[in-house]
Structure prediction request, 287 residues.
Amino acid sequence: MTQLAIYASQASKSRGRHITKMASNDHMRSVFQRDRDRIIHSSAFRKMKYKTQVFIYHEGDYFRTRLTHSLEVSQIARTICRQLRLDEDLAEAIALAHDLGHTPFGHAGETALGNGTRVAKHAMRVNAYGTVDETNATVGLARQHADGDMDAMLGMVQNDLFDLGADLCRPDMEKDKDAEYPPLRVTDTQVARLESEIDAMNGDLEPLRSFILPGGSALAAQMHLCRTVSRRAERLAVELATMESVNPAAVKYLNRLSDWFFVAGRVANEGGKADILWTPGANREAE
Prediction:
């Protein structure tokens, strides 16, 4: 057996394992060999047979999966270690495990819904809850300029939007009663809270006598961005509802949310006093 280089990791000097089963009475294999064998016999490793390595159409008899890719990487790793006089068993274990945990079909242009159904990443339901997630990201930006009660209300909206995403990613509402665990759904109570907050904010605003342009303070500008993205999420949810069952409260929440952002934007502009008013046709005259 080739002597390892002085800089190589030694199996005899391993610091131990979280899993110590069979370590004390297995004298035929080194700790690195046991690591490799655990990986090979794990369910996660075998599942890589069904995970594509790149975006492909399965038209031929042979194509690379994450399993075959990992085997190729392990062979290359052993060859390199042999030349450098490193521990081949350790390198093989690392190479075999390097792809564990990767999504099963993301490279094939598909994703899984909340009930496990595989659909295209451009499916209408995915577009809808993906845009809800995008809305949530814009709220996170808005919170960088908010404080006090406004920041607290935005925090509640962010939590609601996660509820909403979980709701939209779970199809077949009519099967909720048969689910092992009750799916998370948006409720009318959450919609009512938005409406109550809209009424409270409106009560202190200057009367609106013109359309306003997005902008003013940094927070107001961010609120208008939130408004437009949430409107897009609403349009997608409404379109989805023409194709599949959708929780009516989820659609109502999105509808009221865009109004909430509009009113909150005016609050952020000194209660409407610093709103930027639209002047119809202001730039039509020739110079």
